[in-house]
Amino acid sequence: MVSLRQIRSFVAVYEAASFTGAAAREGATQSGISQHIKQLEAELGVVLLTRTGRAVAPTQAGRLYYAQCVDVLKRLDAAQQGIAVKALQGRVRVGLMPTFTRAVLAPALEKFLGLAPGAEISVIEAYSGVLTDMVLSGDLDFAVVPAFEGSTGLSQQLIIRDREMLVSSRTRLRDHLEPVRLRDLGALKVILPGMQNTRRRTIETYFSTNDVRVAQRLELDAMMGTLQFVTASDWVAVLPFVMMMYDLDSDRFTIRPLDDPPFHSEFVLIEPSRRAMSPVAALFASTLKNEAEQAGRVFQARIAVGAGPRAAPKRRRAPAAAT
Predict the structure, then answer these.
(1) At residue 251, what are phi and psi to the nearest 5 degrees?
(2) Which residue, 129, 142, 228, 290, could crosslink 271 as a Cys pair with Cβ 3.0–4.6 Å?
(3) Pick from 82, 116, 140: which residue ends a domain?
(4) CB 33 within 8 A of CB 48
(5) Per the domain annotation, does 77 fall within a domain?
(6) Is 80 exceeded by the pLDDT of residue 322?
């Protein structure tokens, strides 16, 4: 009879594409994981995984069985949580990019802790690659990252579709809040995230397909450092509106939406496919999404094409510092 341990071992090997990685994730030995897979294949009478040296790849039967196993594990997890006492208590482990910690995190935390005062929450700030690995390993309940093509072992849902902005010193460019065509500005000195950051690739693609001239590039994966350098220099940055929405009336920045064509970025919530999100984690995810959606409403009120500047949104709290 197939055991739950065998199923978990198979899912771990499938997602890690490695017996060593699966053993580390499951807190087991490599030989133990290998034995579980052998027993499972013998019980089912099919080969689920092929092994070539250290490389592990699923067979067609393995791919079909994996989808069923993930569904079983998620249903079991949901059933256990469904009968749990004090569902809105417990620990939530979340990963966020500086884009979200700077403007969205503080109001989301305030609302969440008011709804679930007994919850414990841990927030890790990092860039998308690190956060994706942490979700896959089970170190985070969920993370918010730029949209990507997906990864085995992860499910994702859209959080927001946001507008990208040109951010410069208030003394550098005029026409604050007015749409801008980058190709009309001449050669720019641009601060960019490192190549391992998903946003770097999308920004470079926008530049190359829209005749944007770049005089110099500066790689800087430090958001506070980026903003401070922008205010003190003639360098510019391309940043999501959600990150800058509480700076619209600051005297530090000129903020302009990229236009002709508009440049949008999508941010998604990722979570392990094999797990059901706990009620308390789902509550925080929903609260975070609601706060992120505020960016769209502020954009329409303040910066939408054809709309002149209007009153700033009430600032509930100073943005959290990003490091």
Answers:
(1) -90, 15
(2) 142
(3) 82
(4) no
(5) yes
(6) no
**CA–CA dist 207, 203 (Å, integer):** 6
With contact defined as beta carbons under 8 Å apart, do 218 and 189 qualify? yes
If asked whether residues 97 and 232 sit together in one domain, one would say: no
Query: In terms of Cα–Cα distance, which of 159, 125, 164 is closest to 268?
Result: 159
Cα–Cα distance, 319 to 307 (Å, whole number): 26
Give the chain's domain count: 3
Give the number of other CB atoms < 10 A from CB of residue 228. Answer: 12
Token digits for 142?
Answer: 């969920």
Q: Taking each helix axis from N to C terminus, what angle separates 128-137 and 198-209, rounded to the nearest 10 degrees?
A: 140
**Residues 183, 248 within the same domain:** yes
Please state, in angstroms and rounded to a whole number, the distance separating the CA atoms of residues 135 and 127: 13
pLDDT range class, residue 308, cuts 50, 70, 90? very low
Model confidence over 27-73: pLDDT tens digits? 889 888 889 889 988 888 899 999 887 788 999 898 888 888 988 88
- Give CA–CA dist 40/37, Å, rounded: 5
226-249 pLDDT, tens digit each: 999 999 999 999 999 999 999 999
